[in-house]
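2024-03-11 09:14:02 INFO queue: dequeued item ATP synthase subunit delta, len=177
2024-03-11 09:14:02 INFO validating residues
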Amino acid sequence: MADFITVARPYAKAAFDFAVEHNRIEAWQKMLTLVSHISQDEQIKSVLTSDMKPDSIAQLFINVCREQLDEYQANFIKVMAENKRLILLPDVLMLFVQFVLAKQAVADVDVISATPLTDAQLDKIAAGVEQRLSRKVRLKCHIDKSIMSGFIIRSGDMVIDSSIRGRLNRLSDALQS
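2024-03-11 09:14:37 INFO prediction written
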């Protein structure tokens, strides 16, 4: 998975830089979402991993998308097809969205709790994480009863685990050391 991200990053960065330069971020994100969904279709996946010529695969994508691609986006698809990278389109989309969020100075933050949190609790969490990350945050809340109580906050490499399960695991590790 990490290897795919590494290979997808230059394509996502090139698409993002082009979209920013031409003030077409939303159009490129929409296009990448479309072609990403197309690339995940089982029949298309089998074509992407076949011995079919890259030009034919690119033309297949362009034909499926019809009027929804401009010439630059079609060229982007052709370049990815020539390099046999169309299978990476979901990763390219994910990285593109991360670049957009970074440009907007917005961080996605996952909040996992055992029970639903109140609006006041979410506001307090958002304020604390915004201060820590020095950017606006967008909370995505999930319920996971296995953490027993408390919550876990994840954003990129940052993890704040104040769950009972996390505390018990840390205590167990300390006792075993």
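2024-03-11 09:14:37 INFO annotate: The longest helix spans residues 2-21.
2024-03-11 09:14:38 INFO item closed
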